[in-house]
Amino acid sequence: MIKDKLPIGRSIALASIGLALIAGLICAVRANAQSSPLTGTLSAKELVILFTHDLHSYFLPHTILAQDGSPLQQGGYAKLAHVIDEQRRNHPRRTLLLDAGDFSMGTLFHTQFMTEALELRLMGKMGYDATTLGNHDFDFHPWGLAAMLSSAMTKGEKRPAIVASNAVLSKNDSRDAMLKKAFADYPVRPYIVLERNGLRIGVFGVIGRDAAHDAPFARPVAFSDAVEAGQQMVELLKNREKVDIIVCLSHSGTSPIRKRSEDEMLARAVPQIDVIISGHTHTVLPEPIVIGKTLIVAAGSYGSYLGVLNIRCDENGAKLVSYELKNISADVDEDRRIAADIANYKNMVNRNFLARYGMTYDEVIAESTFHLESTKKSVDYPWEAPLGDLITDAYRAAVKWAEADQYRHVHCALVPVGNIRDGLFKGKITVADVFEVLSLGIGPDKIPGYPLVCFYVSGKELKDILEVHTTIAPLKKKDAYLQVSGVKFTYNPHRMWFDRVTSVAVEDENETYRPLEKNKLYRVCANLYTASMIDYVGSASHGLIKIEPKDRQGNLLKDVKQGIVHIRNSTELKEWQALAWYLRSFGTTSTSEVPRIPEKYSRPLGRYFARTSLNPVDLFCGGNWITHGVLALTIFALLMLGCLAHLAVRKMRKKDN
What we know:
With about 650 residues, this protein is an alpha/beta fold. The strands form 9 sheets. Strands 9-10-12-13-15-14 form a 6-stranded mixed beta sheet. It has a 4-stranded mixed beta sheet with strand order 4-1-16-17, with helices on one face. Strand 2 and strand 3 (about 70-75) form a beta hairpin. Helix 5 (about 140-155) runs parallel beside helix 6 and helix 11 packs across helix 16 (about 575-585). The longest helix has about 30 residues, at about 625-655. The radius of gyration is 30 Å and the shape is globular.
């Protein structure tokens, strides 16, 4: 008998310990391989990028129309948060959550932008790793953005990193002094490096050329070329930071027209970028655009979808594994914590903003028996939208109401389709619905909402303003197509640029339309943004047309803000307020206790017409100096060609003789 033989229980225990040590060693080796830098001998690693863009403060679900015309609910941060958490559970330790800008400006919640920073606070609670700044995030001017960043820092809550690689603050202009400090304190950085699943991911953000044009109130902040900024960031991230993957949060956008598709141009110019999350144009890409090794992805707007991009990374870069846009539909569950926060924020909006107007968020102010779609399809082709007719009629009616006995006739009201942010739908219409239609901007009073502005132009200049619709919009800026009230005009899209409007009739004080008089002064109404973009007409036309806003006596206005309309000479008349007042002015019916939108707005009211013709008389008759100049140059060129041909024939005949 061997006396030192171990008892059976102790043997089993030691064996178990040994097996545990071996298993632990194997796990440690695997973990070490997972966390070490990429080499050609290691297996590929997966990364799941969750993404959004153009959220525009749409905390609550919004209504869209299905293809059959029925209304559907989409989006909502509480539902979005639920789907984000699902993805994190499905892909533990492998997910990034990113946003490509314009996280603010679109609903009543953004009225608390400067004081409460609700957007960044909610994004922090939802676990966003990083976002960038879009053009609309500058809508409240540099001082407003600075106040928001400072407010976000004081709340003591988690907040996303912000990357802004091509925002250029001035050297010594006091107008962005507060923003310089806020950028440094937050901090807003050119890029960040994040780590997931053993990968180093470099993230940077840019604003594109078109978006920069759409940010007139960012001044003196400027935006350098997005491609040049991208090249600089790639150089830093690859050589200094030694990252494995590069992601660009681009607020530039894509377009079916190749020369306007800025993110595709960025991918070609900076091929080292692995992923471009493409914001600004509100594009929905069911499949990524692949250019070289770069994947361009987009998930629409307002939180309607959550983008889920699964990539496999090795020493050769990123390869697509899967791509999906998760529909944030009405049947998606809500994150109760986020839903409770949003309910509290709604009370905050009622208390801090709407109380001054005697309104509440969910108050019903009108109803409709038909849908008034947003003008989004007008971005693709010129279309007189009934909603545009309603809005511009509201401008004119509200100015008359606000000015009372000081009122002077408004001949024309206009709004670009890009300023109309949402639609009104069949059924009850609330204060929140109205605000979402005309939600942008801020006035000199530092209260959210663009005020209405009135100014005078000559008849010739009024015709030139309408040429924005016929020439500048189709050639350069599709969201500049116009919706109008008080004028009716026709145009021939085949005529010479900036001379396509062929007839204009203007409504006078007696509601009679009369032919435009070139030297007469006409009073025009628009929102502050549109009035401030008047100088863009000159640059977009390369100086061919020029519009100079004037006062009643014909003196030039030094600043269009001089024309801001005030209610009874007191508070600014906001454009959304004008629409709310106009809706309330409609009468009730025997079947409704709230005002009902008149049936006439269920269809276009016939304010402009495209009459296409290639007849030479229609192409040149009544043309301005641009058409006459081009015609003269064409005739001169033909004469010169004829002379040269004649000389060549004579020379050949002389040679033959």
